[in-house]
Design goal:
Strand content: 15-25%
Number of helices: 6
Order of helices and strands: EHEHEHEHEHH
Radius of gyration: 14 Å
Number of domains: 1
Distance between the termini: 34 Å
CATH class: Alpha Beta
CATH superfamily: Sugar-phosphate isomerase, RpiB/LacA/LacB
Bound molecules: D-ribose
Shape: globular
CATH topology: Ribose 5-phosphate Isomerase B, Chain: A
Largest sheet: 5 strands, parallel
Strand order of the largest sheet: 2-1-3-5-4
Structural class: alpha/beta
């Protein structure tokens, strides 16, 4: 099924962003790119890009998104400040799968400088194709949502 997926990175994640974007398009998904351009190596502040994409997802304009920086850490910290966001930093197949099964992550965070890029594509694929298990996990997400108020 074709999905609408937002993507953004800082300078430290732009090469992997390009690779992930091409991969998603090759699978037939619609990719909405919020920068930075792959050929722009200027240093930028990742919270600016995290905020832009996370607001699109948190306000329902996009169902999900992917944020990439050098480690994925900064993007995940920033994105999780936005209402309605469950951003998961993943680093292997298991965490990619569990981020959906148990956490229903609506943003996937990746680290360009710490991941094998071909494996990172597989993490994206796993996250896209896993199903949230609901039930007790929904209770826990409700408790997280209550923390926002
Ligand atoms: C940028 O140098 C780097 O700090 C950033 O990409 C990211 O890794 C932050 O968490």
């Amino acid at each position: 099924m074709s999905e609408r997926i937002g993507i953004a990175s800082d300078h430290g994640g732009r090469v992997l962003k390009e690779k992930v974007s091409q991969y998603l398009r090759s699978l037939g998904h619609q990719v909405f790119d919020y920068g930075v351009p792959v050929d722009d190596a200027d240093s930028v502040d990742y919270p600016d890009y995290a905020q832009t994409l996370a607001k699109e997802v948190g306000q329902g304009q996009l169902p999900r998104g992917i944020l990439i920086c050098g480690t994925g850490i900064g993007m995940s910290i920033a994105a999780n400040k936005i209402s309605g966001i469950r951003a998961a930093l993943v680093w292997d197949e298991f965490t990619a799968r569990m981020s959906k099964l148990h956490n229903n992550a609506n943003i996937l965070c990746l680290g360009e400088r710490v991941l094998n890029h071909d494996r990172a594509l597989e993490f994206v694929n796993i996250w896209l194709n896993s199903e949230f298990e609901g039930s007790r996990h929904q209770n826990r997400l409700d408790k997280i949502r209550a923390l926002e108020r």
